[in-house]
Amino acid sequence: MSGSRPRQLALALDFRPALGAEDFLVAPANADAVAWIDRWPAWPAGGLALCGPVGCGKTHLAQVWKTRSNAAVIAAEDFLGSDPIDLLGGAGAAVVEGAEAGIAERALLHLYNILAQGHGHLLLTGIAPPARWPIALADLRSRLGALPVAQVGAPDDAVLAAVMVKQFADRRLTVDDKVVGYILSRIERSFDAVRRVVAAIDRAALGRRRRLTVALAREVIGEHGDGP
After folding, report:
1. What is the dihedral of CA 130, 133, 137, 142, to 10 degrees?
2. How large is the average pLDDT for residues 176-187?
3. How far apart are CA 165 and CA 150, in angstroms?
4. Which residue ranges make up each domain of the chain?
5. Which residues contact 96 (CB under 8 A, 6 or more apart)?
6. Which among 7, 38, 102, 175 has most CB atoms closer than 10 A?
7. Strands 93-97 and 121-126
8. Quick check: 158 and 27 in contact, CB under 8 A?
9. Are residues 170 and 16 in contact, defined by beta-carbon separation less than 8 angstroms?
């Protein structure tokens, strides 16, 4: 056996991100989307499509709206073999995530019609606007294509840094400016890359019983190939 001390096994523990409205960073890239959420319930067509890249904050904004509207949150796979009335559970609003990757189209159309008839509201999230989703059912395509679209744009360095600090804080980790600057200079410029590297560094800090330092960040980025 090697004389080196074995690493502590990092348990796969879920963390609970802060999802309140006060925790959301408003910046030029997402200001339009935030304004649309704040405008509810005065939405035209009874709904909204919230679009943007992976990890940009769509789920966070959807959770903020869910709290305000008491909406049911429905994943695309939940529509398979289910009655939309049951999925709503008496709610007058719904968030549907992941529909652009494939969904039971007649069930989604039924849900849309139920909400419209009851003057309820529907929030859809996706990477692309519904007009670009591969929907075969003409009635559904027409209805979703008529929804207003709130786009979350690509982040700048200041936003990425703030998101990174927040994600570390959600894991109860404090990070200094040197570590943030080092990470940002070596990863892809996207929210998803920030999410992945924060999760990897969190696991490493736990498993190796290490402080969150530039040295630890360097090791993790090298191991995961997240460098430039």
Report:
1. 30
2. 93
3. 25
4. 27-151, 157-224
5. 74, 75, 76, 103, 108, 111, 122, 123, 124, 125
6. 175
7. parallel
8. yes
9. yes
Distance, in Å, from the CA atom of 74 to the CA atom of 115, rounded to the nearest integer, reads: 14
∠ CA 59-63-68, nearest 5°, is: 150
Question: How far apart are alpha carbons 99 and 194 in whole angstroms?
Answer: 24
* Single pTM value for the model: 0.73
Torsion, Cα of 123, 125, 129, 130 (10° steps): -60
d(CA 93, CA 98): 17
Closest CA to 62 of 123, 145, 128, 147: 123
In Å, how far are 16, 31, 129 from 154, measured between CA atoms?
25, 12, 15
CATH 1.10.3720.10 fits 157-224, yes or no: no
List the beta bridge partners of residue 48.
123
- Among 3.90.700.10, 3.40.50.2000, 1.10.287.3510, 3.40.50.300, what is the CATH number of 27-151? 3.40.50.300
Contact 48, 123 (CB under 8 A): yes
Residue range 61-91, pLDDT digits in tens: 899 999 999 999 999 999 988 899 999 999 9
Which residue from 111, 101, 121, 105 is spatially nearest to 45, judged by alpha carbons?
121
Q: Report residue 21's pLDDT band, with 50, 70 and 90 as the boundaries.
A: low
Helix (H), strand (E) at residue 75: strand 72-75
